[in-house]
Input
Amino acid sequence: MRATYMYGAGDVRVIDAPDPAIEHSTDAIVRVVRSCVCGSDLHPYHNMREVPAGRSMGHEFVGVVEELGSDVRTVRRGDFVIAPFAWSDGTCEFCLEGLQTSCRHGGVWNAGDVRGGQAEAVRVPLADGTLVAVPVEEDSPLIPSLLTLSDVYGTGYHAAVKARVTADTSVTVIGDGAVGLMTVLSAKQLGAQQIILMGRHKDRTDLGREFGATDVVSARGEEGVALVRELTRGDGSHVVIEAVGHMPAYEQAIGVVRPGGVISRVGVPQYGSAPVGFGSLFGPNVTLTGGLAPARAYIDTLLPGVMDGSVNPGKVFDREIPLDAIADGYRAMDERQALKVLVRP
Output
């Protein structure tokens, strides 16, 4: 089969790889119908050291079940399924608490002997706990939105839920990438009346307004902080979502959060440590939360809105390419020519 491997910074290739096969009785083989490039894929694209054997890529995909291990019970051959970005058993205490990313027996794609989703097919461990069957055909117009449930929509919703967004909280979202935009959508769904989106790309912030942003601040740094505080009567936002992962975004979050407020971080951190000192968080009683989103925990909650068309998170995909052109997809996202790239085998 064809699969995407990265061999070093900027070196993305589609190669011939062995077809996946059932290795355990709890496995499933899924033929990939759509996958995508994630903003977090750009981190190794920028700084990965050379790996002669390459590293498989992709952690977001939807597809059709082709084969099943003998102990799989919750999905059948031919089912269209969503695969969250972490696989999990669904039965351990962490899974039962809705924290599938800490599953005692789970893991993530592209680690160990489990390969990634930017490929023609994937072996899915612990299929019963991982896969979610959806009653659609593989040519359904809902597929882009269903794919967002694999990661970015669940991550945005996680950010808003962990921050305790309600109708009484003002919200500032830092970052106009796919996760930031999904956070805007999620904050709107949870009732927020004021949602400030901090972003510099008009096509993206326009989509943010469509998803529910009431204000857009394009300035960064001290100027951006001042504008957000002006929009919040000088106090700052009750909730700040940091959806970038770089230190300037975190510093911006500290600058715009209201005393007693919450900073929720879901941008994969690209810095070693962040200040939690007296002046930054301790003195003003600011809560720091967020973390790696257990996307599987939110699929059942978010799926009905996708299925009935009341939300369309798939609008974050603004380019579709064949798998063989995936290097161009990485390049387009890296150069900000595309927001999020959809990949078809």
Notes: The first helix runs from residue 42 to 47. The mean pLDDT is 96. The chain has twelve helices and 18 strands.
